[in-house]
Specification:
Number of strands: 0
Oligomer: single chain
Order of helices and strands: HHHH
Strand content: under 5%
Helix content: over 70%
Shape: elongated
Length: 128
Amino acid sequence: MDQNEPTGLSSIDTGAQRILAIQALLISVVAWGFYFYQNQLAAQAALYGGCIVLFNVWMMDRRVRIAAKIAAISPGKEVQVLYFAAIQRFIFTLALFIVGMKGLDLPPVPMLITFAVAQLGYFFNKKA
């Protein structure tokens, strides 16, 4: 085997890098908008909401890679990993919103708007 050849899970293209780049751009634009039209706290809330989305994409990418590895070993078991990933992402998202709104006292509207706008990054994930 050639040392330059990708092995294992690193060769799986989940599209997460493209999605993360697009979402980071969308989050930056929305956060700057909140900074200029409201205040710094609104921009911080927007960035926090955007980071929740980025964290979700990162977690899903890891779970898809693990599911692919499990599918190679024992087909059929990967579905359980993906179901667990969906539940895990839901719980983490809810918990992070609670921390942001109650624990950090960030305004909820910028967080929610940026979260929603960043989700549009999935629609722009086209392979060249």
